[in-house]
Automatic annotation (TrEMBL):
Residues 28-275 form the Aminoglycoside phosphotransferase domain. One of its GO terms (biological process) is threonine biosynthetic process. SUPFAM superfamilies: Protein kinase-like (PK-like) (SSF56112). InterPro entries: Aminoglycoside_PTrfase, Kinase-like_dom_sf, Pseudomonas-type_ThrB. Belongs to the pseudomonas-type ThrB family. PANTHER family: AMINOGLYCOSIDE PHOSPHOTRANSFERASE DOMAIN-CONTAINING PROTEIN, AMINOGLYCOSIDE PHOSPHOTRANSFERASE DOMAIN-CONTAINING PROTEIN-RELATED. Gene3D superfamilies: 3.90.1200.10, Phosphorylase Kinase, domain 1. The keyword Cell membrane does not apply. Pfam families: APH. Keywords: Kinase, Transferase. This is Ser/Thr protein kinase RdoA (MazF antagonist). GO terms for molecular function: homoserine kinase activity.
Amino acid sequence: MTRIRQPEELAGMALLAYDLAPDTRLSLLASGLTTAFQVVTADRRYVLRVHRRGYRTAANTRAELNYLRDLGEALVGADVDSPRPVSTRDGDLVVEVSDDQHCDLITWVDGEVRRPENGLDVGAVRQLGRALALIHNASDGITAPSDLPRWDADGMFTTAGSPFRPLMDIDDLLSTADRADFDDIAGRTREIFAELSTEFGVIHFDYILGNVHLSRNGNEWQVGVFDFEDCGLGHYLYDLCPMLGNLAGYPAGTYNPDYPVLRDTFLDGYRSARPLPVEWERHLPVLMAARHANHCFLTAGLNVSPTPREDAAWRMDLARLSLELPV
């Protein structure tokens, strides 16, 4: 019987592949779909990621890291930071520590997560919009690696096409009523994606407050974006919607009455670096709902949730709330 190694052991094994000092320290940073460890040397900090079974393949992660390398080069001199991949002694970007698990090492992104209750002001929200626009501008000039996930309508709304690799079909996850709403959101999203077919490239896909570090640089906010694990080919307008959902108060709590101001500030920041036609704003509530509908598949992934049906029902509740948001 094959022994299942714990993430700490796998991380220690992976570290041996890198040219780091013997006194390098390793400590747990976060545990979720990926287990992340902080790696500290005498003069630098890194993040070592242990990727879970049944989610991303080593080829997927190499594609992500090649994109991050190109993104970092494209963002030199911009007001946004992103992690850079660190190669092993052998020049690889990934350490395969078992037949079905792998690790990688990336540079640290300075700052801290900010939310409305702990210092996220309108200036920071504007910079969040601008940072995403700068990433999209950079993506326009990057050739997408072939093994990145694809977040088109099939990738978002079909069991077979989902990069979340669900173990349950959507019919087994949702009630009859929720399935009807799921199909309605999927159909409306397909129509929007068809309209915006030219606005397509590598997107972050999970651009939320929890995946951004903010820090002060004089009177300005410096933005650092991380957790590109789900980055892939998708529609740029959709990429605005996870953050807009956070600013509206979802999924953490109830509706934030400051949302209209925060939404306009975020979009103004985006427009400071990239065009965004005003008429496209009418699509935002549907695409915000699409995020939650799509995440029904995530709840059915390997070892993601012990209650996937209940979690999917909650996601569909959030999808319906998103459809009611002001435009």
